[in-house]
Structures are given as structure tokens and as C-alpha cells.
Amino acid sequence: MQIQIMSKNYKVSEKLENIIREKVAKLDRYFEDSASAKVVCSKTKDTYKLELTIVDKGLLFRSEVSSDNMYQNIDLALPKLERQVVKYSTKAKDKLRKASSIKGLLFNDDEFDFKPEECKVSRSKNFTINPLTETEAIMELENSDHDFYVFLNPRTGKVNVIYKRYEGDYGIIDPDYE
N or C: which end of the chain has fewer CB within 10 A? Predict the structure, then answer.
């Protein structure tokens, strides 16, 4: 697994970086070699925040914790993320097991296979995408009756999606193109 450590308003010491790499590497048993982990350490006033994101084969697992100690954050974030991974893999195995038992009882092999023609787009919408700042996009979102708003971010030159979070604040999806 590739591990990338970043910081915002915080200097990651060599000792902390080694501890992060050592502890995150223990999650290797759940992921392929192509998986990548991104750890962001930041500080605001007296609060230290650690964000841990692992991407593998299109799956994304994320853990974010805050406390008054960055070393404690590592010990809080890893079990949280590991629970997500175990929960996902358990659900996936259960679905596979259930599907295989139902398949044998109810369906012929060719009837159980996925049929792309059964998945259809029921509505398509075209619109002009406008360059807007994040603040302007929030205003547009508030003026619409949608849960999200797509806009061209002039700062990055990329298409972004702004959405309202459950906590009442806003989130932005800023894709990385490969």
C-alpha cells in the first residue's frame, strides 16, 4: 500500500511519520498492493485533526478524528477505519453467499446473471455549466430545490459538486482526473 502523509498548519515529526506508516501498514492485510492511503494531519488552535483515507479498486474508506493529541488520533482513527473495512467485507461475503444459495434454488445460471439492459437511465438533463466561486455555488444551491449543485470552479479549472451535509454545512467534491 502506498502511504502519503500531508499536513496543514502542522509539522509532522519524523517520529510521528514513522508511527503513522507503521500503523497504517498493518491494514495491508485488507487491501491489494495498488491501494493508496492518504493521511492528513492538521491543527486549529488547540485541536489536532487526523484524516485517514484509503482508496482501493474504486472503494473509499475514510476516518476523521480530532483531539488534543495527534498520537491519540492515530489510535482512534485506525480502529474506526478497520471497522468500516470489516463491515464492508462481511456484507459483501453475506451477499455473495446469499446470492449463490438463492441462485441454486430459484434460478438457472443464465437467468441469474446481471443484464445491463435492465439498468436504464430514466431521465437525462443537459445544462450550461458556469464558472462560479464556491460562495456563489452555495447561493445557487440554496436557491434551487436540489441536494447538490454542479459548477466550474475558476480557481481550479475543474468541475466541482457542492452539496449540503447533514450537519448543515457544505461539502465540495473536487475530482482528480487520472
Answer: C
Question: 82-128, pLDDT tens digit by residue?
Answer: 888 888 888 777 777 766 655 444 444 444 455 566 677 778 888 88
Q: What pLDDT, in 10s, does the model give residues 34-59?
A: 888 999 999 988 899 999 998 888 78
Fold of 124-173: SHC Adaptor Protein (3.30.505)
First to last CA, the chain: 18
Three-class HEC string of the chain = CEEEEEEECCCCCHHHHHHHHHHHHHHHHHCCCCCEEEEEEEEECCEEEEEEEEEECCEEEEEEEEECCHHHHHHHHHHHHHHHHHHHHHHHHHHHHHHHHHHHHHCCHHHHCCCHHHCCCCCCCCCCCCECCHHHHHHHHHHCCCCEEEEEECCCCEEEEEEECCCCCEEEECCCCC
Q: What residues contact 3, with CB distance under 8 A and at least 6 apart? A: 20, 21, 24, 25, 36, 37, 39
At residue 152, the pLDDT reads: 92
Q: Indicate if 124-173 has the same CATH topology as 2-91.
A: no
Q: In CATH, which superfamily holds the domain spanning 2-91?
A: Ribosome hibernation promotion factor-like (3.30.160.100)
